[in-house]
Amino acid sequence: MTKANRPMALTLYSYPQLYGQSDNNPYGLKVATFMKLCNVEFRQAHIVDTTNAPRGQLPYLDDDGVVIGDSDDIIEHLTVKFDLTIDRGLTDEQRRTDLMIRRMLDDLYWVMSYSRWADERFWPSFRDELLRTHGDLRPDQLEAARTYNFQRYHYQGIGRYEPAAAYKRGVRDLQALAGLLGDGPFVFGDQVHAADATVHGFVANIYFYDIDTPLKQAVLAAPNLVEHCLAVRTLASQG
Question: 152 and 179 in one domain?
Fold first, then answer.
């Protein structure tokens, strides 16, 4: 996992930064964290236009002209290409647990997104921070994105929930995650793995946000989630 013989031909396209996080979307932060933990050199390009993205979704990776979408596919591609050892010692049971965590966090994603774009209590703070942090964004662009997200929430289902019921789902996801993490310090004990980058992508995008949603309250109520978030952040910053 050294940087030797790895020319930097990798560009990670992801959403803009926010509240000190390199991506305000958990999947982009997940991949960026993974690459830093594995000492894979890359350039991160922050965009909002998903026209050229595979399936119209971010993040995606441009590996010297080869484009890979989906955070899990990006991690798999990098693991094979650079023979990364971060998950080499995992047991079959741990790999199944890794998959279940990822699928559970897919559920949490919708509640996180709902809290930012749909909940009238928190939308103004999220909107204003985006506009303050990124001077090239316009209010009409964010309103258009909000309208689009309302459609997504309706067809996915979370938009048909009352707010309390929506947050109940997300809080339960976070409580289950805290239970799986246990005493840590990482998901599978003393060594950091890709699962930790995945967890960090989500928890950091709640913990470091100056928006007091029920999801943030659930993270603050779970000291092991906070400790994990800070530990992975420190390791990634050393990569």
Answer: yes
Listed in order, strand segments (DSSP E) in 8-49 are 10-14, 43-46
Inter-residue contact 202 to 104 (CB < 8 Å): no
Q: Which amino acid is at 30?
A: K
Same domain, 72 and 179: no
Assessment of whether the complete model's pTM goes beyond 0.70: yes
Residues 155 and 62 in one domain: no
Q: Which residues constitute the domain of residue 27? A: 10-81
**How many of the other CB atoms lie within 10 Å of CB of 16?**
18
- pLDDT tens for each residue of 27-82: 999 999 999 999 999 999 999 888 889 998 999 999 999 999 999 999 999 999 99
CA distance 171 to 167: 6
Q: Which of 7, 190, 180 lies closest to 104 in space, CA to CA?
A: 180
Domain count, the chain: 2
Within its chain, how far is the Cα of 101 from the centroid? 13
| Beta-strand pair 10-14/60-63 | antiparallel
Q: In terms of domains, do 58 and 102 share one?
A: no
**Is the same domain home to 123 and 211?**
yes
